[in-house]
């Protein structure tokens, strides 16, 4: 399972009702799992707490059990958790405390007395059952989305000696509300259970330690850090007792090297935006504590990678597979940051000498030192360096500079495509309550190749099941000039997914074929395909309509999608069979392909990739497509599939080889041509691609290269333009 950056929530589509009804996930009713989880940014960030106490981590392994659609709820969840902790794990009952949601009058939420009474019925003393408000016991994944009250199980580290010292062990969340964009809370159509218990904290309890850092998950790392640096051994001190913050530095380095190793193994590299920027911040924080507090020589961090692999590699084989790459990335970034850190320290010292006593550190200098400025020092590190010198940062001035920078970036940024009309979780719940079946979109594959080489796309007759206004309100009819959403029993429109742009076109009423309703896009929500259209005349639920896709647009997408498969296969031929796709997007104009790379691609490699694609195009190979049971696609050497949830049955696209032969493990055909799991629309023969030219190549982050390519006449023009330029240069 891949690492979930910030907060793990892979079952969100079930909560929102948007899960593909044909996927395995749609059949989940109760699940127990363990997942890698990184919380270092956004609403649930633990980064600032790591090192300061004995229990917080940026990376941890989350143990969870889930119930969907009311499979079980509060009573069963609490009972199973209590039984596991007290009877299976043997944790003394008098060391456990629980908390529950005490209500929020401002939000109109009553106290969760049901959870309180369940704990009391299980034998938890009333003195160990505590009530807290929304800050502590109402869980939200973000500013919007599924949420609900939670009840937490805490462990008393003091063990009946003095005042209780409680640490959260297990959080049981009851997903029953949805936070709307306007801030209001609405009940979800179905209730769910989402629980999470950190493996590290559980191990600490079971091994009888007061700290997760004293368990065998961390002790090998702490020992290796001591051996590699000039600091005293780790003693587990915190706060004022931790003189020089030595033990804090031990914890920071031990935690961060685990996070770095896990993320890099999963293809997330330190970078300049999003999750890569957070990882860069973590790496630089670890370097600073390693070198400045622990006095470790350069290279300590990368030397710890084998310890992480030894500790976690059996559970996560990708660590063993990528250990050399992990160490290389960490070593390179550490060397670059050390140079910046030394220079930054000199600038700080020089600035402080100019400041009078009790003055704030200038925001302009801090900004130039930060990740947003020139030297790339994380702001929390900068504040910590100043705190150690007894100086405060001009936070107000820094916030002003950050706001100005954000405004500048927004003006320079590319325009973001409109989100379009949406089916909310409530609209989806109403459709499911009424028993409305998901949209049959199999007619999107109804096209054929004429003897002349042109394509014939079939129309589709359908019935209007539901209409929606722009704000998502379900209505029985729409009028002239109105922009609306349209739900049909079936469609031949391709809804945007899998990196392929949505179809566009028009529809007509069966009884009035000279009036066209333009359809701008189609999107899928939980198996229901919503068409976004404009009404030239009235349209009502129950009307029969005929759908026509924009044939030129669709054909352009088909050319680019088949070309994308050939490009992926050609990259594996040039770079090796282990080459991984990181993402793609295509429309009739061009295709974008992100690929995992150890280094920037050379011009020779790019020419080889283009040549491989052009050979396949020149041979005008047939493209075979077939729906097969998902189980039949397992263990096929060379079969390409991305890290995503596939429907069952799943569509297989094979170039030059019939699907049945390609899926025969003995044939090894998938190693010799492009064979992928894909729901997109494709050409029936490769010759229509015409040509392919890579017109752009750049590093998105270390380890990921983005390619831009064009096909057909555009490719020929690009090729001729390049040849003319080369001749002029000569």
What report would you give on this structure?
The chain is an alpha+beta fold and 730 residues long. The protein folds into five domains: 9-211, Bira Bifunctional Protein, Domain 2 (BirA Bifunctional Protein, domain 2, 2-Layer Sandwich); 216-356, no CATH class; 358-414, no CATH class; 432-549, Elongation Factor Tu (Ef-tu), domain 3; 555-729, 2-Layer Sandwich (Threonyl-tRNA Synthetase, Chain A, domain 2). The protein has 20 helices and 27 strands. Strands 1, 2, 3, 4, 5, 6, 7, 8 and 9 form a nine-stranded mixed beta sheet that branches. Helix 7 (246-265) crosses helix 12. The two termini are 52 Å apart. 40% of the residues are buried. This is Alanine--tRNA ligase. Belongs to the class-II aminoacyl-tRNA synthetase family. Alax-L subfamily.
Write a brief structural summary.
Its EC number is 6.1.1.7. The chain is α+β, with helices and mostly antiparallel strands and 730 residues long.
Main sheet overview: 9 strands, mixed
Strand content: 15-25%
Mean pLDDT: 90
How far the N terminus sits from the C terminus, by CA atoms, comes to 52 Å
- Helix fraction, binned, reads 25-40%
Class from helix and strand fractions: alpha+beta
CATH level-1 class of the largest domain: Alpha Beta
- Give the assembly state of these chains: single chain
Count of structural domains: 5
CATH architecture of the largest domain: 2-Layer Sandwich
By DSSP (H or I, 4+ residues per run), the number of helices equals 20
Which geometry do the CA atoms define? globular
CATH superfamily of the largest domain: Bira Bifunctional Protein, Domain 2
What is the total tally of β strands? 27
What name does the CATH topology of the largest domain carry? BirA Bifunctional Protein, domain 2
């Amino acid at each position: 399972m891949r690492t979930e950056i910030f907060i793990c929530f892979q079952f969100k589509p079930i909560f929102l009702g948007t899960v593909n009804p044909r996927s395995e996930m749609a059949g989940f009713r109760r699940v127990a799992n363990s997942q890698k989880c990184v919380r270092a940014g956004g609403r649930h960030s633990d980064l600032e707490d790591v090192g300061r106490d004995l229990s917080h981590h940026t990376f941890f392994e989350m143990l969870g059990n889930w119930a969907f659609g009311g499979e079980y709820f509060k009573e069963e969840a609490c009972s199973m958790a209590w039984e596991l902790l007290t009877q299976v794990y043997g944790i003394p009952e008098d060391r456990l405390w629980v908390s529950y949601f005490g209500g929020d009058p401002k939000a109109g939420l009553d106290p969760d007395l049901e959870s309180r009474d369940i704990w009391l019925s299980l034998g938890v003393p009333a003195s160990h059952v505590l009530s807290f408000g929304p800050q502590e016991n109402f869980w939200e994944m973000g500013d919007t989305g599924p949420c609900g009250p939670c009840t937490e199980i805490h462990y008393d580290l003091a063990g009946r000696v003095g005042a209780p010292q409680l640490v959260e062990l297990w959080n049981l969340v009851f997903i029953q509300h949805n936070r709307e964009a306007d801030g209001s809370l609405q009940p979800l159509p179905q209730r769910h259970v989402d629980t999470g218990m950190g493996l590290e904290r559980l191990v600490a309890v079971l091994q009888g330690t007061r700290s997760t850092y004293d368990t065998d998950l961390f002790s090998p790392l702490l020992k290796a850090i001591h051996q590699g640096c000039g600091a005293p051994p780790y003693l587990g001190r915190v706060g004022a007792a931790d003189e020089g913050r030595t033990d804090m530095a031990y914890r920071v380095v031990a935690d961060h090297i685990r996070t770095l190793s896990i993320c890099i193994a999963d293809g997330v590299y330190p970078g300049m935006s999003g999750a890569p920027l957070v990882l860069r911040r973590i790496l630089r924080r670890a370097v600073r504590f390693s070198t400045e507090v622990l006095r470790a020589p350069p290279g300590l961090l990368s030397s710890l990678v084998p310890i992480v692999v030894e500790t976690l590699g059996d559970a996560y084989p990708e660590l063993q597979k990528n250990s050399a790459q992990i160490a290389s990335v960490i070593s390179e970034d550490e060397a670059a940051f050390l140079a910046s850190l030394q220079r930054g320290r000199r600038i700080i010292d020089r600035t402080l000498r100019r400041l009078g006593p009790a003055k704030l550190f200038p925001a302009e200098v801090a900004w130039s030192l930060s990740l947003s400025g020139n030297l790339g020092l994380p702001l929390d590190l900068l504040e910590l360096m100043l705190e150690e010198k007894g100086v405060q940062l001009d936070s107000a001035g820094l916030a002003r500079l950050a706001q100005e920078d954000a405004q500048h970036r927004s003006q320079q940024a590319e325009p973001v495509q409109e989100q379009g009309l949406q089916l909310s979780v409530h609209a989806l719940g109403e459709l499911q309550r009424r028993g409305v079946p998901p949209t049959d979109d199999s007619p999107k594959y109804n096209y054929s190749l004429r003897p002349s080489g042109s394509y014939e796309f079939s129309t589709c007759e359908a019935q209007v099941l539901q209409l929606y206004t722009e704000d998502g309100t379900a209505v029985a009819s729409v009028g002239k000039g109105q922009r609306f959403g349209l739900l049909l029993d079936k469609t031949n429109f391709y809804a945007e997914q899998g990196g392929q742009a949505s179809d566009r076109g028009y529809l007509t009423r069966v009884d009035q074929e000279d009036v066209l309703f333009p359809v701008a896009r189609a999107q899928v929500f939980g198996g229901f395909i919503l068409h976004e259209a404009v009404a030239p005349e009235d349209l009502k639920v129950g009307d029969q309509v005929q759908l026509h896709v924009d044939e030129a647009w669709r054909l352009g997408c088909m050319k680019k999608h088949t070309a994308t498969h050939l490009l992926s296969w050609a990259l594996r031929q040039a770079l090796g069979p282990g080459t991984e796709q990181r993402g793609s997007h295509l429309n009739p104009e061009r295709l974008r392909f992100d690929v995992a790379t150890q280094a920037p691609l050379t011009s020779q490699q790019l020419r080889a990739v283009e040549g491989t694609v052009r050979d396949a195009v020149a041979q005008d190979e047939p493209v075979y497509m077939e729906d097969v049971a998902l189980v039949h696609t397992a263990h096929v050497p060379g079969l390409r599939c991305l890290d995503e949830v596939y429907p069952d049955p799943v569509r297989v696209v094979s170039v030059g080889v019939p699907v049945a032969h390609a899926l025969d493990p003995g044939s090894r055909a998938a190693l010799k041509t492009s064979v992928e799991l894909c729901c997109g629309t494709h050409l029936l023969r490769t010759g229509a691609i015409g040509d392919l030219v890579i017109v752009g190549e750049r590093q998105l982050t270390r380890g990921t290269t983005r390619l831009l390519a064009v096909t057909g006449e555009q490719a020929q023009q690009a090729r001729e333009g390049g040849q003319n330029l080369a001749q002029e240069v000569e």
